[in-house]
Write a structure and sequence with these properties.
heterodimer; A: alpha/beta; three-stranded parallel beta sheet; two-stranded antiparallel sheet; 6 helices; 8% strand; globular; B: alpha+beta; four-stranded antiparallel beta sheet; three-stranded antiparallel beta sheet; 9 strands; 15% strand
């Protein structure tokens, strides 16, 4: 059916859609983020929820204080090695399907504090990140843009077939291993199934 | 697992009190104001022990600064107390200027006062908003506070290029000169600010729930506060007349006519009132600063930024930040980067008496007491 035909039916009060479209439409317009801030970026996240930027326009204003009621984790701020296991534990406590936004330079790569021995060089070492928002801190508009990008991503997910959404694949583990404090660093330093450090080939 | 592991709630047997309950609040909790953890031991609903645990945001600020040039650590000071980057810049600039004997032109001194007082408005509004959030008002006072905060942030942004991380001050002056339009807009905002404060106070100050929940809660007497090294509005709420703007007279503060509000009871309500009264005083200072702002350069022509190598020596620069005394202690060995760099953060030191203030109160009161101390974890952990 062409879009014009579908529009014609819609004018007569008939809506034709697929289950997949309906499911994705519902999911993408009712994202519930976890109320969870780590550092400076969290203030901009709060600002995004206030009247001027109004994250409610995108159906994502219900910040939940409990991970069990949330489906979006906005990692806003510096993740330190003391905090990283707790972030992964919170992620594990969130029900599927769940999404992750890495907000700001620190959450993406360690940012300006990358030299620090205690700073995790990017949360994508342990949990899968859907959207990266650069900035230090990103403006609230940038967060809203990231959110709309995530909505677009959710709308493109497939319920079945070879490119089925991650959370529907039985082989895909929803729970990720929580790193432990080792003698020198977190053990393991990254989740090998999620992240592999870039190799630096040397010329002989 | 290490320190972060273990059950969230566990019973502790104590032969005098019977069974006590140990609850771990945080580091992810809506009312801990960031990644902060309180291990609270409860007898029924009363707190018998409270252990603050921090370090979840330890970002090595001091060590990084020792490895970078003097100018290079200026942006890191923005990220200490990320609500008041302008006054953090100034504190660091004061320390470096003391170390190098660097003079500052008059116009820059006035601009610094303007920026610091605007920052104080931002910080105190946020504090009041968050405090009411902790009282369970479901966001409304915070929405009002953020509405006004955005107006000030717009000014900061048009001046420095960034909303929160302003990075505006330099050793020997400021980075950019505001245009006459900017000054007119800022002056108009400041003149309208008391109207917002009236609106805000009508909504909050006489609120019955607020009075019941904050008066007589989290008392701190002057002796305790002085002994613990508490500074800022938290100290003045206990009736101690100590304001570094008056005591030290840094910048051009002796030229301004303003009053230092003092509390009498040292409870949560007084700490709230200190913030409201200080905002009114800040408006007075700002009005005077806009009136008297002289023309002239904003940077000392001999000031050196790149390749800056101060003489061997040490200096401690401090100012009255919105949260209390913010100080930077620098030791120079004549190289382009500091030999030792140490921050004296008000948030961390004000937090030390959290247990004494909370003992005997309920866990809901501890949340409000923590809110009234006004902490930012970027500064507590650094």
């Amino acid at each position: 059916m062409t879009d014009a035909e579908r529009e014609e039916l819609r004018r007569h009060g008939i809506l034709l859609t697929s289950l997949e479209e309906l499911y994705n439409w519902g999911r993408s317009n009712s994202i519930w983020p976890l109320q969870f801030g780590l550092a400076c970026c969290a203030i901009e996240m709060i600002a995004a929820a206030t009247a001027r930027f109004d994250i409610a326009r995108f159906g994502a204003e219900i910040f939940r204080p409990s991970p069990r009621q949330a489906d979006l984790m906005i990692v806003s701020g510096t993740v330190t090695k003391k905090m990283a296991p707790l972030v992964v534990r919170l992620w594990n406590q969130m029900p599927e399907p769940k999404y992750c936004i890495a907000m700001g330079a620190c959450a993406i790569s360690g940012g300006p504090f990358k030299q620090g021995y205690n700073v995790l060089k990017g949360i994508d070492r342990y949990i899968p990140v859907d959207i990266y928002i650069p900035g230090c801190p990103p403006r609230p508009e940038a967060l809203l843009h990231g959110l709309t990008q995530l909505q677009a991503k959710i709308r493109g997910e497939h319920l079945a077939g070879p490119d089925q959404a991650q959370h529907l694949r039985p082989a895909n583990p929803g729970e990720l291993p929580i790193p432990d404090y080792g003698a020198h660093d977190l053990e393991p330093p990254h989740n090998p199934a999620r992240f592999s450090p870039p190799s630096l080939p040397r010329k002989a | 697992m290490g320190a972060a592991a273990g059950p969230l709630v566990r019973a502790v047997h104590d032969e005098f009190h019977g069974d006590l309950l140990e609850v771990s609040m945080g580091p992810q909790h809506p009312s801990t104001h960031g990644v902060f953890r309180m291990v609270v031991t409860l007898d029924g609903e009363r707190i018998v022990k409270l252990k603050p645990v921090f370090g979840y945001l330890h970002r090595n600020h001091e060590k990084i600064a020792e490895g970078t040039s003097y100018l290079g650590s200026m942006p890191y000071t923005d990220r200490l107390d990320y609500l008041c980057s302008m006054s953090n810049n100034w504190a660091y600039a004061l320390a470096v200027e003391k170390l190098a004997g660097q003079p500052v032109p008059d116009r820059a001194q006035y601009l610094r006062v303007i920026m610091a007082e605007l920052t104080r408005l931002v910080n105190h509004m946020c504090l009041v908003g968050f405090l009411f959030n902790d009282l369970g008002t479901s966001f409304t006072p915070l929405l009002y506070a953020f509405r006004e905060r955005e107006k000030i942030l717009d000014l900061f942004e048009s001046l420095s290029g960034s909303r929160m991380m302003c990075n505006y001050q330099r050793f020997g002056g400021c980075r950019v000169d505001p245009t006459p339009e900017w000054l007119a807009a800022a002056s108009a905002l400041v003149n309208n600010f008391p109207r917002f404060l009236d609106e805000y106070e009508t909504m909050l100050t006489g609120n019955e729930i607020m009075l019941a929940r904050t008066q007589g809660i989290g008392r701190l007497n002057a002796q305790q506060a002085i002994n613990a090294g508490i500074t800022g509005p938290g100290l003045r709420a206990s009736g101690v007349d100590y304001d570094i703007r008056k005591v030290d007279g840094y910048g051009f503060y002796p030229r301004f006519d303003f009053r230092v509000p003092l509390g009498a009871h040292g409870d949560t309500y007084d700490r709230y009132m200190m913030r409201v009264l200080e905002m009114r005083e800040s408006v007075k200072i700002l009005q005077q600063a806009f009136r008297d702002l002289p023309a002239g350069p904003i940077m000392d022509p001999k000031a050196k930024l790149r390749g800056f190598r101060p003489k061997i020596g040490e200096a401690y620069g401090r100012l009255e930040g919105p949260k209390g005394e913010l100080g930077f202690h620098l030791i120079s060995d004549g190289s382009p980067n500091p030999y030792r760099y140490r921050v004296r953060p008000p948030s961390l030191i004000n937090l030390t008496l959290l247990e004494e203030m909370s003992l005997g109160h309920t866990i809901a009161d501890a949340v409000v007491i923590l809110g009234s101390i006004d902490i930012v974890l970027g500064e507590v952990d650094r």
